[in-house]
Design a protein that fits this description.
By secondary structure, this protein is of the alpha/beta class. 42% of the residues lie in helices and 20% in strands. The protein has a seven-stranded mixed β-sheet, sandwiched between helices. It starts with 14 loop residues before the first helix and ends with a strand. One of its GO terms (biological process) is methylation. Belongs to the methyltransferase superfamily. LaeA methyltransferase family.
């Protein structure tokens, strides 16, 4: 008998890690899903959505606004603490959002739901943190309803960050973040490998829509959200500690990267573009 997969979120849940996650919404991080959500909702007022690895729940809450009159969304994560944070966020959006959302601790490797239990299964930046992404996709496909249900996935790619102004220290940060992700058992090339994982999980290529979407951090508030969080990671948290443990960085290097992020946040012409692989699987 095969031992069950153990799911661990390597970066941890320190605010330095999760703060910038709360910038994410359905509109800037799940736009490829929204037309399918609206289409399915028109046909089924009781649409059932599962959000796997929901984290702080900002995408979950914004997806809830697109649900039909009696639609519901179940948010899962492996951390009770982060689910409490997601619950608090949902309640702050008001009763029309919070009444639609429930929360349950669950692993992506072993979703505790029957086959075909959900019309839509969504996961965002989950697979890149897993040692066996295809196994998690296989579980998501299992709990997705046949006959028209969809699985929606989106994963970043650490090799597809584009900075301006160009700074060697920012590239050094990207490499540090990449090396720490890999050391944690994650998948730094998740965006470009996403389609491959879906096919390994058993999906037929004809049933898969694959593409790429972007994040752009350019407006002042967006630069502060991203750059401030990256500085926090350099000052505290798992990435800093792991970087020192593995000999990937020095204290001087940390300070130089912090100054580079501060300069980037202050520059009116600063931009950061990040590519994300996106997939929609239509379940037969």
């Amino acid at each position: 008998m095969t031992a069950p997969q153990v799911e661990i979120y390597g970066p941890g849940y320190h605010p330095s890690q999760t703060k910038h996650h709360e910038w994410r919404t359905a509109e800037n991080s799940a736009a490829h899903l929204l037309p399918h959500l609206e289409r399915l909702g028109r046909a089924n007022p009781r649409l059932r959505v599962l959000d796997v690895g929901a984290g702080s729940g900002t995408i979950t809450a914004s997806l809830a606004r697109y649900l039909p009159s009696e639609g519901t969304i179940l948010a899962t994560d492996i951390s009770d603490d982060i689910l409490d944070r997601a619950r608090t966020h949902a309640e702050a959006q008001g009763p029309d959002v919070s009444r639609r959302i429930s929360f349950q601790r669950a692993s992506a490797y072993e979703l505790p739901f029957p086959d075909g239990a959900f019309d839509v299964v969504h996961a965002h930046q989950v697979l890149c943190h897993l040692a066996s992404p295809a196994d998690a996709v296989r579980e998501m496909l299992r709990v997705c309803a046949p006959g028209g249900g969809v699985v929606s996935l989106r994963e970043t790619d650490m090799g597809m960050w584009c900075f301006w102004p160009a700074r060697e220290e920012l590239e050094q940060f990207r490499q540090l973040a990449t090396d720490v992700m890999v050391a944690n058992g994650g998948q730094a090339e998740g965006g470009r490998r996403l389609l491959s994982w879906v096919l390994q999980a058993g999906a037929e290529r004809a049933d898969v829509e694959a593409g790429f979407g972007t994040w752009c951090y350019s407006a002042p508030q967006d630069r502060r959200a991203w750059g401030g969080s990256m500085i926090d990671r350099l000052r505290t948290g798992q990435m800093r500690d792991k970087g020192f443990d593995l000999g990937l960085v020095t204290e001087r290097g940390i300070e130089e990267m912090i100054r580079a992020w501060e300069d980037w946040m202050a520059a009116d012409d600063a931009t950061l573009g990040i590519m994300n692989g996106e997939v929609i699987v239509k379940k037969k």
